[in-house]
Amino acid sequence: MTNLQFQKALRLVKKTGKGMIIMDEGTDSAFVLTSIEEYESEAINSRPIATSPKQPGIWDVMPEAGEEGETWDMNDLSVEEKGDLERQYKAFVEKNSQETEVTSEIQTEKKDEKKAMNDEDFGEEEFYLEPVD
Fold first, then answer.
1. Positive or negative, the Cα torsion across 32, 33, 38, 40?
2. Taking all residues of the chain, what is their mean pLDDT, rounded to a whole number?
């Protein structure tokens, strides 16, 4: 890639705000050219979340069947725990409301299709006439 081609690719990345794949002719390696902000955002968001050894998994804290389980009170939660719970709830509601909307649309479409089919299909048995001798 010549310097002129690189500068052209850089201007395009700046203009569109999207990354670009650049091939190295000498080694057939591929690289992504993107803004530092985009790279930083991707690097931060793609980091795996490591679980701390202090935090047990759900199966470690769940009581066995038939055992009495622990209950909790919202008033006993810290500010961070309440914020975390609220974020999780909002994400859950948003995900389920989108799924509900899609399901509702699909059901409405199916009902409309059935109604259209029933309107078009007069039902042969409804209009069958017996010949008279």
1. positive
2. 76
Query: Is 116 or 113 the better-scoring residue by pLDDT?
Result: 113
Q: Which residues 6+ apart lie within 8 Å of 1 measured at CB?
A: 9, 22, 23, 24, 25
What pLDDT, in 10s, does the model give residues 101-113? 666 677 777 777 7
